[in-house]
Amino acid sequence: MTNSKLQTSEQQEHDQSSLNESEPNQSGPNQSGPNQSGPNHSGPNQSGPNHSGRDQQREPKLQAPGAGIPKLELLIAKHIIFPMRFKNTSVATAIAEFRDESDKILQLARELSIDQLSERRLIPRLQGLEDSSRFWSIAMTMEHLAIVGGGTRGVLLALSRNQTNLPRRGTADVKPSVDLDVQRMLTRFEEVVSDFIRTAEKIDYDKFPEARHPHPWFGPLTAKQWLMFAAPHQKIHRRQIEEIKARL
Hints:
This protein has 248 residues and is mostly helical. The chain contains seven helices and four strands, in the order ααααββααββα. The protein has helices at residues 9-22, 71-88, 91-110, 114-118, 138-160, 182-202, 223-246; strands at residues 120-122, 135-137, 213-215, 219-221. The strands form two sheets. Strands 1-2 form a two-stranded antiparallel ribbon. A hairpin with a 3-residue loop joins β3 (213-215) and β4 (219-221). α3 packs parallel to α7 and α5 runs parallel beside α6.
């Protein structure tokens, strides 16, 4: 969901300027595209086109990691969107949504080659996405999700045991590395998703309702509230992956 309503004209100019500076040859889409023979359930397409010879995008000038999202967008999310989600979404639904978004991400990854998963592309800023995250590869995006998913699982476990003395991490602390072992990252992503779901399903969210841990944007949250963020976070980055894929 593009942030067409919330984004200021200044931000739009910044996005367009960055895209104009860094977008590769626009003479037409890459006709080779993803593997059309159907999803490969054993992993990403190993025989896909090799894009190593294509011109690489230049590093764009983006905001520093941890700069956050526009203030109006944050206020709407903090005081309208997520309070409604906390009130209306059950634990079972939140877990099912997380599983569904994770499955969609894996399906997108399996349609691409290792080279394609490793290529960085500049995309327009999406709602919920920091400016500094706009020049990632699909592999980087999935690595970020593995980092955040593992950390959130740890928070759920700790709060379910009334343990609140946890280290704080900001958004700048969960950014991925540029150079990744893609196959290892894919395995890690699947493991994190599986572990997260298994943990989320067994926790008693009502045992210590006062136990909280601060989110870097939304302040102190209970275990159940942390769980409610999991699927929307996957969804933001699934859309990011779709935008990157469209530019390969």
